[in-house]
Amino acid sequence: MIDQQENTSLPAVLCLTDACDRPETELFIGLKKAGFDVDVMCNPKGRNYQRLVDEGMVAQPMALESRFDKAGIDAIRNQLTKKNYEIIHAYNPRALACGLKASKGTDIRIVAYRGVIGNISFLNPESWITFLHPRVSKIVCVADAIKDYLASLKFLWLRIPDSKLQRIYKGHDLDWYQAEPADLSEFGVQEGDFVICCTGRNTPRKGFDVLIKALDGLPEGMTPHLLLVGDVDKNEQIKELVAQSPHSARIHFTGYRNDAPAIAAASDVFVLPSTEREGLPRAVIESMVYGVTPVVTCVGGMPELVEDGVSGLVVPPRSSAALAEAIGRLYRDRELLAELGSAARRRISDHFHTSQTVRETGDLYKSLTGRT
């Protein structure tokens, strides 16, 4: 515990975000409890907004509509006059661009957050008003893969200095996840059936087609159910692929679900066959928390999350054969399935805990302001 004398020396921080998720919310609260003077400007429509209000942390509500949101920039600029903030921590590109504009002419340190790979380039003008802006002091990367991607960017003599990049995993807590496993009987799943869950947005890079083809490659006699959770039910190409599959009667589109984690918790395996640009996918983390064995591709930060053969299985992207082999292995070996699921849960508890995120973020703030 930090004593009161030390508390008074810690920097004041203004966090700019949107509808912050549970890990962000608990990070802000954890930093406040550690003695940091943290204020938050965020979207009042977020499900965690009231929790921040109750903690006295919301400086004012804010929902930025673009990277040039004049009202938002004015609101941030006005907030900066109310306290001697030393750091702005922006959690998305809109907040970053507006925070930079609002703090122009000050010596406030700017910390950016980056959770995905891609869409940053020295040839892209929008990158220069966000992550490549010279006033950005640090870019917090949610995975080493993102840090490595940013470090690899270059054009002529231009590159992002290594000193600007820092990996801090987004932390979780097992106690946040208390959902009862969903009843899957509405999808025709019976007790004892082997169930695969895949949750994701309707985008080609999620690899739904690879997963469906992997099921087609399973040996005869293997009869898993596959639950496709999310708006992929709007993808006509994927629906046609399912219709042609010999497993079509056991492939179920759930549509968007508020109880997606509960569906994952009721499954035997969680598969995310992404082909590119992943950070630390929340859906994978949620499944691991519930002790469900993950099978992921070696894309983005997923190999940092899942240790191959220890807390899940990692396969090459775009390989339906490798994915079929991994699913078949778990289908045949239920003891291995249980072992990997238990290890997955421990993996989140031991290596991706919110207390670690609070500590490392606090150390970053202190380092930026000369407190260490």
Describe the structure.
- It contains 15 helices and 15 strands.
- The strands form three sheets. The chain has a seven-stranded parallel sheet with strand order 3-2-1-4-5-6-9, sandwiched between helices. It has a six-stranded parallel sheet with strand order 12-11-10-13-14-15, sandwiched between helices.
- It is of the alpha/beta class and 372 residues long.
The geometry reads as elongated
**Which runs of at least 5 residues are low in confidence (pLDDT < 50)?**
1-7
Helical proportion, percent range: 25-40%
Q: Which sequence of SSEs, written as H and E, runs from N to C?
A: HEHEHEHEHEHEHEEEEHEHEHEHEHEHHH
**DSSP helical segment count:** 15
Radius of gyration: 22 Å
State the total count of DSSP E strands: 15
C-alpha termini separation: 17 Å
Largest beta-sheet details: 7 strands, parallel
- Neighbour order of strands in the largest sheet: 3-2-1-4-5-6-9
Q: Structural class given helices, strands, pairing?
A: alpha/beta
Averaged pLDDT:
94
- Report the sheet-strand fraction: 15-25%
